[in-house]
Design brief:
By secondary structure, the protein is of the alpha/beta class. The chain is built from four helices and five strands. The protein has helices at 9-21, 78-85, 104-113, 129-141; strands spanning 32-36, 42-47, 95-100, 117-122, 144-147. A five-stranded mixed β-sheet has the order 2-1-3-4-5. Strand 3, helix 3 and strand 4 form a beta-alpha-beta unit. Helix 3 packs parallel to helix 4 (129-141). The longest helix has 13 residues, at 9-21. The protein is globular and about 60 Å long. 30% of the residues are buried.
Length: 159
Amino acid sequence: MKRKNYLDWDAYFMGIALLSAERSKDDSTQVGACIVDDNKKILSVGYNGMPTGCSDDRMPWSREGEPLHTKYLYVCHAELNAILNSGGQSLQGARLYVTLFPCNECVKAIIQSGIREIIYLSDKYCDTVENTAAKMMLDMVGISYRAYTPSSHEVVLSL
């Protein structure tokens, strides 16, 4: 008899995105992303962090202050990291699972990469002009997006 209480695909891939977010050193916002093909194979993952080679200890993580002393000019978002981490393989038709709805800058990279669907956990910036622009671009090119509906499944990892 087959086990019945297993993760569905959306829960599994969102779980991978959530686990990836745990790699982020950002004290205020941890975001993770997981890119999946039509065969339910993981193509790439990413999290929000500093560019490769830029020391996490030497770069600023502050949210306020002079622009050069805040994280915003430096941090590479999870979605962009996942696209760049794919090693140049085709992402045409792929799905992106992400813990936070993508910003307008990441949406540009998502469009250019060929990703066709976005499944997101949170849309906490839904009232911003950047979010509106992101959704306008996605709608214009026919990329679908939907909120992830959490299952009642709880997974506890002790590492």
